[in-house]
Amino acid sequence: MTGRNAWLLVALVVANAVLFLLHLLVGPVPLDACDALAALFNGADEGGAARVVRSVRLPEALTAVLAGSGLAVCGLLMQTLFRNPLAGPSVLGLSSGASLGVAVLMLARPLWLLAWLPAEFAVIVGAFVGAMAVLALIMVADRRMGDGVALLVVGLMVGYLCGAIIDVLQVAGPEGALKGFVLWGMGSFGGVVNERLPLLAAVVLPGLLLALWSMKALNALLLGETYAASLGVDVPRMRRTIMWTTGLLAGSITAFCGPIAFLGLATPHVARGLCKTSDHTTLLPMTLLTGASLALCCDLIIKVPGAAGLPLNAITAFLGAPVVAWVLWSGKRWARTA
User: Fold this and answer.
1) What is the pTM of this model?
2) Number of domains in the chain
3) Euclidean distance between CA atoms 133 and 131, whole angstroms
4) Which domain holds residue 259?
């Protein structure tokens, strides 16, 4: 890692710390830094500010960090696996599978009679089961075909099929349930309370560690599967590892936060633009930190006065769409860094 990139990593760590603190201060009830720090480090403080920070803002900020870094790493893994700069976490249909799981649970009335879980937790379970069902289907297809391009086509077709079923359920679903499904589809980091945060972290953190452990194999895959195999990389096993890691990360984040658009697709390109390298030993940590920063930024924007109530996905699209447009405009010159 060059000295410039080392300083960039340090700058991103500092930026994340500043954004995290701002996240604790900004909201309908503005707080000063002393109140926020007292709530974090003074366990005896039971005032109103402490309750707001510990019960609402701290879980939301931690969720944004976990979701942003997880989705960013998912995007980088998919772009490396398929050697396609426009690949993202949804490329295998995982987000569509999670949405279908929630749609079936919320819009198919008979299933509510079978749901013994609390409504909010049932949504998480439905999304996770839907994503894992699609992942299992993709893994079966991978074992049968063993071809990355064919697998990409299968993932896209599964996504379209899930979307078609969701459309049918939306037409047939009751009005109240439809509104709830639409709101879930807008995405939010604010729905993960303290009791559920460890569940999200228990999936995301091991997934991030597994991605970091795979950095050298990812570098080999950049040069093609044949070259990676000549270096001793078990390509089929590595491909399955990448897909399982992506599936668990994207599935769990979608289950807890709803489908978050563009963070996974755009963040790796922002990180490449910062570090000017495709070496995963530098690029992957940079992507992880950049994803956390962008997620915190997007969530901060919808918390400022005058922007409250804006959908999170609207903000991520406003920030991410120009990046994707730039990737398309730059063509092969940019794609080579993927």
Assistant:
1) 0.89
2) 1
3) 5
4) 3-335
